[in-house]
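Complex record, three chains
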Amino acid sequence: MNAPRKLKVATASLAGCFGCHMSFLDIDERLLDLLELIEFDRTPLTDIKHVGANGPVDIGIIEGGVCNAENVHVLRDFRANCKILISLGACSVNGGLPAQRNHLDLRDILKAVYSTDTGLASGTQVPNDAELPLTLNMVHPLHEVVKIDYFIPGCPPSGDAIWKFLTDLLAGQTPHLGHGLIHYD
Amino acid sequence: MIDASQVINSVLERHGRDGTRLMQILRETQESLNWLSPETITAIAAGVGWPRAKVEGTAGFYSFFHTQPRGKYRVLWSDNITDRMLGNMDLMQAMCKQLWLEPGHLSEDGLVSVETTSCTGLCDQGPAVLVNYRAIPRMTAERVEQMAELIRKEIPVADWPAEWFVIEDNIRRADILLGCVMAPGEALKVSLARGAEAAVEMASNERSWREAVHSADPGPSVTLDEIKKSGLRGRGGAGFTTGLKWEACRNAPTTGENATRYVICNADEGEPGTFKDRVLLTRQPDLVFEGMTVAAYVIGASKGYVYLRGEYRYLLEPLNALLARRREQSLLGKNILGRAGFDFDIEVHLGAGAYICGEESALIESLEGKRGVPRNRPPYPVTHGFLNQPTVVNNVETFAAAAMIAGRGGDWYRSFGTAKSAGTKILSISGDCERPGIYEYPFGVSVRQVLEECGAKNTQAVQISGPSGICIAPKEFDRRIAFEDIPTAGAFMVFDQSRDIFEVVRNFMHFFAHESCGFCTPCRVGTTLLKNLMDKIAAGHGTQYDLKEIHQLNSVLQISAHCGLGHTACNPLVHTLERFRPAYERRLKSLDFEPAFDLDAALSQARQMTGRDDADAHLSNELETVSEKA
Amino acid sequence: MMSDTFNIDGQEIPFTPGQSVMQAALTAGVFIPHLCYHPEFRPHGSCKLCTVKVNGRPASSCTLPAAAGMEVESNTPEILDKRRSLLQMLLVEGNHFCPSCEKSGNCQLQALGYELEVFTPHFNQFYPNRPVDASHPDILLDLNRCILCELCIRASAEVDGKNVFSLSGRGITKHLIVNAESGKLGDTDFALTDKAAQVCPVGVILPKRIGFAVPIGQRHYDAAPFSAHVDEFKPTAASQGERS
């Protein structure tokens, strides 16, 4: 008897705070159970730079919304290389905290932050190094940029919610979070 | 310098400081003061004894009321699809260029603004504009230039060339209604005589009859019988049987101190592509007023209102003059035609740019000085209408037909049309045809015959009864205009093979989003989502995923919208996706998903601020299947 | 017929004449989702979350008079699907950022989202630019969260007799306004003790200087889901009988 192939999982944080990743780690010792079923591709824990570099990924999990050009590239990489893509946490689901800037004009924000705010050295300018990713006019949730298969809301979703969702999914069931596990806050 | 408080006071006095007359108070105040400042709103609220926020709420609902300062000139381009087909967008751009401004923004000197408005009912003589709410049809590049010049020189609109303001009737085919020659008062006299005859008969067999309202006079009842016999159905589109509506209202009890019944003529002809009420009110206004008076006689009403859309402001003075003449002729006022106790008068109220007020309960709300939001039903207006009293609301054309029926008899009227659709229907024809204008046909006429007679060639599609109606393809041109087949309020817009049906529908979706009253969630949010989806597809970013979204939104609106606007808002999409699907598909990406917004454009502000334009400062909207950034 | 009843999803519901389908259902302990409904006020019918099918035809259960023999479908997959879409419309229309909202856990919009298992706003966010009015000494008015249920308008007019709130604009630009020339809540006679300060189902009208007095996780809808609070929504004398 061959053990079933382990599912390959990749994760990334875009315009988020890594809180959802921390919450993921909050499943504690169940991580060991999970590792019986999955192996990690690109995550902040591994040193794999490019999602799917070692073959197709089964499940991609993304925390955070899309706030700059680099976010768009990473998200698209995930979409292109993951069979299932999960939007994890408030920022990825509806923009969350970073999207609180959306009612402001980006130009005003950049001006304030880099040139007119008190305390800045005179003559400072908006950085224009080609290495830096450009900021989008607005922050967007993931599903406005690529197709997303599943959403886990919460800021962050609890370790229990993530565990329940993933174990449902790994068991081949449509994931459900009952009362107490589904949260927007 | 105009003294604002003096203006406000005299307007308030003229309307008896009555809050239910708020629409007229706001309009007349604005006509003098140019806009409704916060101070003006406060003064009016105090004057009518209403909470200030309620007055502000009414002012804020209607497109033609201004709670922000506006220029001395406001040019509104009618933006129906027929105006677009006649080139209104290019002309508007040219006008903006000549006046150095952006559409929708006040010029820097505060003199003028240029923007679009929903269909102004001049589709047979477009492109049309409203300048300070005065209608001007047949715009041309030359006229745009002259107009810009007059604006720059600050010549008052009243001194502009008179021929610009001439509105044509364009009656191409008249039948019994448009061809009707009846002396003012004839229908009323016949009705009263019919009643006298019945009274003699009744006295002879001493039956008390089924009289509820005027127990002594059987006239109303026998006139109602003629209306019922005629089979007349409402001409506003829904086709409710007029006799039954009048009977229900007549039987409904009045309540309270000022117990009475009301007759309301719905002349809020806002459905894009419709303009027959404008022509009826120009050519047969006596018949319309007479029909209202007949209705008043039947139901026992003491007051009538014509709710005239703000776009037809120019009809106000002629209609008021005619009402004065009818009062002199004893066709309105106290003891009409010498009949003791037959008291009825009519007043014309103007709307202020809100399509939803064509819905009868929203119209009543507006007539009461409120935001034009459709009421919860039941109860219906026939029992609880204007000021909570029993109220009949009928279309302009219905009243004109009712007057004819009262004068000539129900059997006579019944002999025209089809089994379930008695009489004639007036069509407003516009779009791709040689002779746009007004056509009156007996019910049952085929679409094909109409198309032939208006000179339509290579017709690709016909939109019947406006955006909320139906869009049909050539294989259906043998269908008939009748309640049994295609019911219509009268709009008949023709599109030939050169037209892009997708753009037609996109124009309609913008219309619905603009005109949603915002009361219920599905219509308020759903119409905007639909508009955005259509814009996304138009920009070349649409996919099959977006078409699926359209179907989902349609099903949500169908099941949960509060009124007809929401229920029908998806009709253009559903009808054309059935019949003209390639018009959508040729714009779609082969992918099944595209971003909701233009990714590269979303970097525009950062590019501007950093001055960058390198490859990494751009994003492709296409999904990168192989990443170059390992 | 001995006693008047109708049927919701197979369950017989008794009613008294004049009751709406919603009122009869709630009285019988059957939950129908709602946001603009409030037991102390006349039905409004704007949020449409209470949409049901009656004898196959759609209707708002809060405004529909109950009638004997009605067959009402409520918790069917089709209707739940539409209710989810309606809730998602409300979520994208405003700026609903629960983690920073003091109403979180006590919010009906949020609780209904949990109830219906709405994992995502699904549609594209509108991110409207809406004001926060902190001009009143005791009350914060955050219009980012307004779902236009008009409960505060009704409460202020009908109970408080103050008419502090109204609506302006139309369609997607419709918005709450206050009864002051300045447009500021601080210039009205609004008070923390007003009924209108108690009825907001979301986090628009909030008392100042109260934050996390009750920890997240111990709030109203944390203990039990929205549907389990059905007793709180049973109609009162004030809302029953008269309908206009």
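Note: The CA atoms of residues 128 and 160 of chain A lie 43 Å apart.
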